[in-house]
Specification:
This protein is mainly α. It has helices spanning 15-25, 45-55, 65-76. The chain has a domain at 45-76.
Length: 78
């Protein structure tokens, strides 16, 4: 069994979380891994410039998101 707790800050760790872990796993052996959430990112100035350029393109040449993903899959095997 696996349980994941997502916290907005390390300061949110409380005894309630430890009690929940104890209740869920009883006396079974467990491993606790703590890692920084790196899924948050901010667009760089270069990324924003590329997006601004794309917004200025002729709409008649647009690809749908599905078409774009299909082309990327075919080219790069994503």
């Amino acid at each position: 069994m696996q349980t994941t707790f997502h916290l907005t800050s390390a300061q949110d760790v409380s005894t309630d979380i430890l009690d929940a872990i104890k209740a869920a796993f009883k006396s079974k052996p467990i491993s606790i891994i703590v890692e920084e959430d790196d899924s948050y990112f901010e667009l760089s100035a270069d990324m924003k410039a590329v997006l601004d350029e794309r917004m200025q393109e002729d709409e008649s040449t647009y690809l749908t998101a599905k078409e774009s993903i299909n082309q990327l899959n075919n080219k790069y095997g994503l």
